């Protein structure tokens, strides 16, 4: 167990780089476009997963917990990150996994988690819906609970630190910050820290997920002293649903990765960059500064 939470920072690339992105369309509209490369924070503890977990881990240590329990699916980046945290920092970890037909070798994520020493508990997809009941069955008194995806009120401050980094790196507040939306934790954290000048744009990667607006509001009301309401979520760029792909999306990602020299995946950041390519035509004001959040993700 690391004795000082500041030890976390020693293996992390923070602040993450803010890199310019170029395109003839940006020149035409006099746009300054940047990518916040949170994907470079750490190879395993990637992107917004670290942002959302940081203050949860500090709270766990503060309360004297050395064991963590959390939830995830076979391809969960959150699960992968928690397993890595266990390996690097000495936490014992347990993962409650959606799908009792799976095993430790059903995916790269589960195999890595197993190799890191995470205890995997496989449950049916129906049982997985009632997480409180599952905690009653599997959680021990000495385990700190990390929510699925890492999103809770403690996650807001970690994401808020990213906004502070952007402000310091630019020297001013951007006109737009754009991010993918899954559980709503990242966009809520951004809203908890931006100035009213900045319009926050979310690109939802789930189908039929309008319920997230209420969850984002609830999270902010319960976890932020002040927050901006200057935001908009676009719902139409999910490409058939969470972790689903369309030929148009995959063609875009292939061309994007080749052109820009860094990679985006099709689950989160790829859908955001695809959406931005469309939104910049009509939704983004000329003469604006835009920061797009590359939230990491392993696939």
How are the SSEs placed, and which strands pair?
Elements (H helix, E strand, L loop, with lengths): L17 E4 L2 H5 L3 E6 L10 H15 L4 E6 L4 H13 L2 E7 L9 H8 L3 E5 L1 H4 L2 H8 L4 E3 L7 H18 L5 E6 L3 H7 L7 E6 L7 H12 L7 E4 L12 H14 L8 H14 L6 E6 L5
Helix pairs in contact: 2-7, 3-4, 7-8, 8-9
Q: How many β-strand stretches? A: 10
Report the end-to-end length measured between terminal Cα atoms.
29 Å
Radius of gyration: 19 Å
Low-confidence stretches: none
Please work out how many helical segments DSSP would assign: 11
Shape: globular
State the strand order across the main sheet.
Answer: 1-2-10-7-8-9
What fold name stands as the CATH topology of the largest domain? Rossmann fold
Domain Tryptophan synthase beta chain-like PALP: 28-296
Cofactor: pyridoxal 5'-phosphate
Pfam families: PALP (PF00291)
Family: Belongs to the ACC deaminase/D-cysteine desulfhydrase family.
Write a structural description.
With 299 residues, this protein is of the alpha/beta class. It folds into 2 domains: 13-47 and 153-294, Rossmann fold; 66-141, Rossmann fold. It has helices at 24-28, 48-62, 77-89, 108-115, 125-128, 131-138, 153-170, 185-191, 212-223, 247-260, 269-282; strands at residues 18-21, 32-37, 67-72, 92-98, 119-123, 143-145, 176-181, 199-204, 231-234, 289-294. The strands form 2 sheets. It has a 6-stranded mixed sheet with strand order 1-2-10-7-8-9. Helix 8 (185-191) crosses helix 9 (212-223). The mean pLDDT is 95.
